[in-house]
Design a protein that fits this description.
It comes from Seriola lalandi dorsalis. This protein has 158 residues and is mainly β. Helices cover 11% and strands 35% of the residues. It has one helix and eight strands, in the order ββββββββα.
């Protein structure tokens, strides 16, 4: 089933995007306040995003990837202030030095240094899984109003 082609609206601007590279995925966060009418088209070599924000500003981004991605294992998620796009690399364990094929830097793309890791030179194979696990544990703690999970049967107060 083909999705309708996304056409660039006449009055549009690019949304600011933060991106970072991992072993198997590239993540892009488009910064848009209360996005609506979101259309995302992920193709093996490019991505098109079109949407509006809460004040009806129109955003349109089109970018050609540095390398190919697997479209069936890539997805987007819409949040209150961002549209998160997770792109599965066709060639895992291959670092992307930039997000776009074009070497000219687009003004609306920035590296997400808070999430960036120089994983190419990491000795520790399980580090990413460990970090994800630790993120999950801390997320559980905060969503559980700060309480750690009850591990009563492990208690040594018996």
């Amino acid at each position: 089933m083909n999705k309708p082609k996304i056409v660039r609206p006449e009055e549009s601007q690019p949304a600011h995007a933060l991106w970072y590279d991992r072993k198997k995925y590239v993540t892009i966060n488009f910064k848009i306040q209360k996005p609506k009418d979101v259309q995302v088209d992920i193709q093996p070599d490019k991505l098109i995003l079109c949407c509006k924000n809460d004040t009806d500003d129109v955003y349109y981004n089109e970018l050609y990837f540095y390398d190919k991605v697997q479209i069936h294992d890539s997805r987007e998620r819409v949040y209150d202030r961002t549209i998160n796009v997770l792109l599965r690399k066709v060639k895992p364990d291959y670092a992307w030095p930039r997000l776009q094929k074009d070497t000219a830097k687009a003004s609306w793309i920035s590296v997400d240094f808070d999430n960036w890791r120089d994983w190419e030179h990491e000795e520790d194979e399980g580090k990413e899984e460990y970090d994800r696990y630790m993120d999950m544990i801390s997320e559980m703690a905060t969503s559980n109003k700060g309480h750690t999970p009850d591990m009563g049967d492990l208690s040594d107060s018996d």
